[in-house]
Amino acid sequence: MTIDEVALAAYLESAWPGFKGPVKAEKFAGGQSNPTFLLTHAGGKAVLRKKPPGLLLKSAHAVDREYRVMKALGPTGFPVPKMHVLCEDDAILGTSFFVMEYVEGRILWDPALPDADVAERAAIYDAMNAALAQLHTVDIDKAGLSDFGRPGNYFARQLSRWTDQYRASETEVIEDMNSLIAWLEKALPADDGRASLVHGDFRIDNMIFSPTEPRLLAVLDWELSTIGHPLADLSYQCMQWRLPNAGAFRGLAGIDRQASGIPTEEAYVARYAARTGIGDIPHWTFYLAFSFFRLAAILQGVLKRALSGNASNPERAMKMRENVPVLARMALEVIAKDGK
């Protein structure tokens, strides 16, 4: 996938004060949703993130929301890149896009952190925990995000949304997904009134850490952010404790927590609870099962785009065909093991 560098340079010179062309755009290899490019220009480096081409599912690939939430979070002190410009004119590059600061640092693709020592692993996980607690205590009104989503009944609305998204991108009947959806609908807990800004895809490889220390510099990929229930983010991240560290998944199942320095799921949840003051967490099994379901629905959408020729990374996207039923089965195993 390439973009028109001449058209981009002309636009940025008019929309980004101080920018001077020419510009070279090189696509990052990772990413399944919104294609992302490293921009090299006279003033240094930047990052461009755009919607993919083709027919898209409703409300998906919302680069405008990504731009807005990161721009709002910057002044709060939460670690995000600086936003430069948002372009919603499809005539420039074919789809809307935004340009943000390039943050120099490490993206840690493997949550097991094989290249870190015990102390650094513990510090990295604590930095993530602190950032999640910080995000969930952001004053939404002061940040100018009071209309960024609808508070209340978050899981009911999300279950409906992702069921619809899954059905719209369904390519074959997966009985475990049908069973999982039916269980989630029956086990849906009553709304407890909690609402906060949520990231929606809070995991270690959506973050940039300092090159030399376990300090979190930036949280990326805010496409799924909204006003929602904070435990959705927490359970989604803790899902990685259950996923295998093999094949297409980058999880922590089978990793010796004590020897590695990585906290147990229970310890991580307890630290978050202490930082946010939320107390006990009922319905944890539901939250975990929902997280597996939601990820499966997202990956089904990636597969559908691959089959339609619109995937950012087609070869990797096609592998999602086998991962969707695996996630559904794992969710049902969580339900069977952890309670009804």
Automatic annotation (TrEMBL):
Record-annotated Aminoglycoside phosphotransferase domain positions: 25-251
InterPro entries: ACAD10-like, ACAD10_11_N, Aminoglycoside_PTrfase, Kinase-like_dom_sf
Keywords: Transferase
Gene Ontology molecular function terms on file: transferase activity
CDD domains in alphabetical order: ACAD10_11_N-like
Top-level taxon of the source organism: Bacteria
Pfam families the UniProt entry points to: APH (PF01636)
PANTHER family (UniProt xref): AMINOGLYCOSIDE PHOSPHOTRANSFERASE DOMAIN-CONTAINING PROTEIN, HYDROLASE, PUTATIVE (AFU_ORTHOLOGUE AFUA_1G12880)-RELATED
Protein name per the record: Phosphotransferase family protein
Organism: Phreatobacter aquaticus
